[in-house]
Amino acid sequence: MSIAPHDVIEYWFAEPMRSRWFRSTPDLDAQIRERFESVWQQATGGELSAWMQTAEGSLALAVVLDQFPLNMFRGQAGAFASEAQSIEVALHAIDRGFDRQLPGEQLAFLYMPLMHSEDLEHQERSVHLFEAAGLESNARFARHHRDLIRRFGRFPHRNLIIGRPSTAEELAFLASKEAFSG
Questions:
Q1: Quick check: 176 pLDDT over 80?
Q2: CA-based nearest residue to 43, from 28, 24, 63
Q3: What's the domain range around 49?
Q4: CATH number for 47
Q5: pTM exceeding 0.85
């Protein structure tokens, strides 16, 4: 099955998907896995790197590498398997000014890999980009993510999923009302 960037964009930004971006269900996760896991595998294998030559292609690749695995592999280490590649795509697109070619709603998903990074420099850049673009709702979440990385150096809610031990401070945070789970 051949897929083009437009196919990913059309799927991800169509109604009713927009209302489900941050409210997924097991059925939606299964649908994304069935429809796009082979595309994700191609992307992680470097077979879709040509997509990085356009704004639309970069956005589609960022969605495939950043968003789709969060759905396809929810609660598993695979959810973060292509995070580094999604960050590379986002930085490449930003460096080429592709972000200036995208509307705000799409732009948010190009910047999101930086918000998902456990690198403080990426987090700081994420906050700056969301604020500069006037995407205040996203910027609020970006600041929250950045503050977690400042505090812990990583996202504590990932520890169990990827098999790394939690510190006492992280466990206390995870047991608190301020805990962030995704």
A1: yes
A2: 63
A3: 5-174
A4: 1.25.40.10
A5: yes
